[in-house]
User: Which sequence fits this backbone?
């Protein structure tokens, strides 16, 4: 059972321009990044939300990975919502048992967007 929204990932075309907009228009400043993460095919920056460890992550694609494909298909916007759970394996098994299409890859767990009515969810273990 999800406990809270851990973070939100927003896909963007131009990370530097987006960071300027978030800072000047929304009053949000990056605590980390921009940083290239070629192993994930993206460039990212973290915008903290309060003191609870929650954040918004802005991502710009590097190459033709998942972020680039989603950006081409859907444009800029929310890429995924990460939900905190007590136990990742238990939560994934419970959702799978309830009929959700659970995608497990490289130690990460996602819920297929079709089961989230267009939203890709990621499960994150947080105690």
Assistant:
């Amino acid at each position: 059972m999800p406990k809270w929204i851990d973070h939100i990932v927003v896909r963007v075309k131009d990370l530097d321009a987006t960071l300027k907009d978030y800072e000047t228009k929304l009053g949000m400043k990056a605590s980390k990044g921009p940083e290239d993460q070629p192993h994930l095919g993206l460039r990212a920056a973290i915008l903290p939300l309060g003191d609870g460890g929650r954040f918004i992550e802005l991502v710009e694609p590097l190459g033709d990975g998942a972020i680039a494909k989603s950006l081409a298909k859907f444009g800029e916007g929310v890429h995924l919502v990460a939900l905190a759970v007590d136990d990742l394996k238990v939560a994934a098994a419970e959702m799978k048992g309830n009929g959700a299409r659970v995608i497990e890859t490289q130690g990460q767990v996602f819920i297929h967007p079709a089961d989230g009515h267009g939203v890709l969810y990621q499960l994150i273990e947080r105690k």
